[in-house]
Amino acid sequence: MLLWKETEYSESIQSMKDPFLAGIVGDSMSTLSIPIARLLGPCHYPQVYRYLKRISFTTHSGSEIYFNADGEVPATFDIMNLQIFPNNEYRLVKVGRYDSWAGRNEQISLDIGAVIWNQEYKEFPRSVCSESCQPGNRKVSIQGRPVCCFQCVLCSLGEMSSEADADICTKCPEDMWPNEKHNDCLMKSVQFLAYEDIIGIALAITSIFLSLITLSVLCIFRKFSDTPVVKANNQGISYLILVGLLVCFLSSLVFIGYPLEVICILRQVVFGVSFSVVVSGLLSKTITVILIFQSTKPNSIGKHFYARISKTTIFICPLFQVIICIVWLGTSPPYAELNMTSKPDIIIAECNEGSNLFFYCMLGYIGLLATISFIVAFLSRNLPDSFNEGQYITFSMFVFLSVWICFIPTYMSAEGKNLVIVEVFAIIASCTGLLACLFFPKCYIILFRPEMNTKQYIRGKQ
Questions:
Q1: Which domains does the chain have, with CATH numbers?
Q2: pTM of the prediction?
């Protein structure tokens, strides 16, 4: 049956020129009506016109017909069982119903007791051509195959499915990560350089051991403070450098363990200032070597003036580093944070430096002092000196700069606890180089070659 829309122009109705097709009313049986509806759907011809789209009615066969908001009829089918009897008689019996608009688990209703099975098949036939997807997987349709054919695909990173035959996988919360089977979400593990880690224990033991050695060297220098080896080239600066090295070694312990707010604020500041003191002391020692040599020349400035320059250097240079750290802490101080983005499967507990600009300014200033000290020491390496102080400083600065030049690219490419490991290793390695190059030769003379630690030996060399 065809329905035509009434128009306002009676001439068009009478002449039936270009009539407007309002809709088509199909047969009461779905066998013909459903295919026709699907064919006419793309042409926007609805089973009734728009004003019927919310009407529902019951046909003579007892089927309920209703339309959705788009004027479409939901797909509903009767499930019929062909029952064949021994006398070759058969009949078609309704045993269930399929309703596409029902809930996921309610689309098929079946009366199993009303079904008469064939002698060869006494169980439910498979309605799909693929095996069921286990939890942790999702169904993906196979191109060119019916919708009942699919393949099972493991859920993507960060996703899980806890039900079988899931169409989609669910993303885990930000602080959770799927287990190996992707069928459950587990809390992410928190990563940081802990004292329980092997590398954490090794770095902590090394730092403490070298701190004790530094303290021992300081005690040796204090005990033999009246000997020429200790007096040469300003023993006060040597004490200051040893104290600075001791603080540097101990500061590496602050980098190990769970990062707290106070620790994050203090660790870079303590490290930066103590390193500046050490390098400034080396620069002052180098200047002292040059000025003492110059003082032996005629018309040279007095030794008191040289001592004043040395003290000014060791005071002014660390002061600039202190100012950098104060401005850093006053504007954008470091803070503790839980980083959930660097690695998807773990949470990184780390210290955010607050401002990378000030962090690299602090490192850059140390590098500047070390470079100046290396250049000055290198130029003065051949000056006459009783214990080769200029050569020792030159070599120690070369070791120091080599360590930190290698540190910068490695630090920028590392992440997580590896970032902390790199920095702690650089602190320990550079401080060890300074301690070994500057003080071990003198300790060797004090403890094992006392004949060299005399004024007569110094005068003979001079």
A1: 1-74 (no CATH), 137-187 (no CATH), 198-461 (1.20.1070.10)
A2: 0.67
